[in-house]
Amino acid sequence: MNEGSRALQIIRRLELFFSLAIRNLRRHSVRSFLATVGIIIGVIAIASLGILGNSITMLYAGLVSDVSDTVLVTPHLAVSSGDPFDPRNMLPSSISDRDVSRIRKVAGTNRVIPMIRTAEEIQVGDKSGFALLYVLNAEDVPFLVKLERGLYPRETSAGCLVGRLLADEYDINAGSRIELGNQTLRVVGIAAERGMAIDINPDFGIIVTQEWYSGIYGGENYSQVVVKLRDLGELEQVKSAIDFQMNRKEDVVDITDSKEILEIYFQTMDAINIMLLGIGAVSLFVASVSILNVMIISVTERTREIGIIRSIGTHRREVMLIFLFEALILGIVGSVIGGVLSAGVGYVISISVTQSLFGSFGGIGTQSTVLDATAISYIIFGMVFGAVMSMIAGLYPAWKAASLSPIEALRYE
């Protein structure tokens, strides 16, 4: 027999096995349907959760502003006694004027910007709430915040700069009057939208001058110090110099830069994605158990049939293929349907979650939920994973069917 005839014979036998598998699945349509539904749900879970994780990653990437020329100096968190995780044991810490002078001494020609960061109640007309309050020297404001309209506040004036998203929320314009705490301030300018960064997040904040704040609330130490580098090549040198100057005897400050923050961010996002995929994978494992159960029942019910086809010369591997085809058909049909549905389900879930968590950031609820290459790869991964799990679930029942003795199988009632 030549190679062509042998290949044709193999194809015909595979077609026969495939038709036998289809016939049996149709004979037990309800059971097959329920097993397929399990795979569909599993694929939807793993693919849609992957899409959700990707959407959250894209969302944060759109919100985070990478300020690569920035070194941030913050007070080292002190613990009084007892449990370090008990907030009652935390000692209030800040950075003094003397500390700022020491930082300026080692920062060289790089600009050092001390800052007070707190929160205050804001009221505009009949609307009220709380907003972030940033206190800066007037000459430092332009180095951190860009104007959208209006002017920067002057050192001696009772004026403030309002973040654009906060201004949109409260219908604030340049020239408006707002109540901040117990004080009335005139809004001299609206800050351009910037996104989150390690130095300042002005979009939902209010910026006032150091002189005005000290005149109202008295002298106060700083919450953090921002060092703006002229040359990125000096980053490690400046960090080391500040650390040596400030933490020589004990830890007084913590020193970070945007690169470290972004690395932590990406590591966190990767961990979230893995966790979401793991949750989806659990549902697929459960679905594969249902296929395992269906196939074992099928082998038990068809024991006599297996004995007949074995007695007419069907090889063990061929019996095994019949049952593997059944598991594979269930897995492929469920995976394809689940993959198609997961595109829509993942999109809806991503829209709902991102709008619930970050809807207040304005217009970003849908821009991070497009089906990009990464999202499509999660769908493909879910489909392949579903088909593979179905195949694995069918291995033991197929092996069990192929291992039956023809004589014993024919005697089975």
How would you characterize this protein structure?
This protein is of the alpha+beta class. The protein has 2 domains: about 15-65 and about 265-410, no CATH class; about 70-255, no CATH class. The chain contains 12 helices and 12 strands. α2 (about 30-65) runs antiparallel to α8 (about 260-300), α2 runs parallel beside α10 (about 315-360) and α8 runs antiparallel to α10. It is elongated and about 100 Å long. The chain starts with a helix and ends with a helix.
> What fraction of the residues are assigned to beta strands by DSSP?
15-25%
Low-confidence stretches are 79-92, 360-369
Give me the secondary-structure category.
alpha+beta
Question: How much is the radius of gyration in Å?
Answer: 33 Å
Question: Describe the biggest sheet?
Answer: 6 strands, mixed, barrel
Number of helices: 12
* Helix amount: 55-70%
Question: What is the number of domains?
Answer: 2
Order of helices and strands: HHEEEHEEHEEHEEEHEHEHHHHH
Q: Strands of the biggest beta sheet: in what spatial order?
A: 4-5-10-7-9-8
Shape: elongated
What is the mean pLDDT? Answer: 79
Count of individual beta strands:
12
Distance between the termini: 41 Å
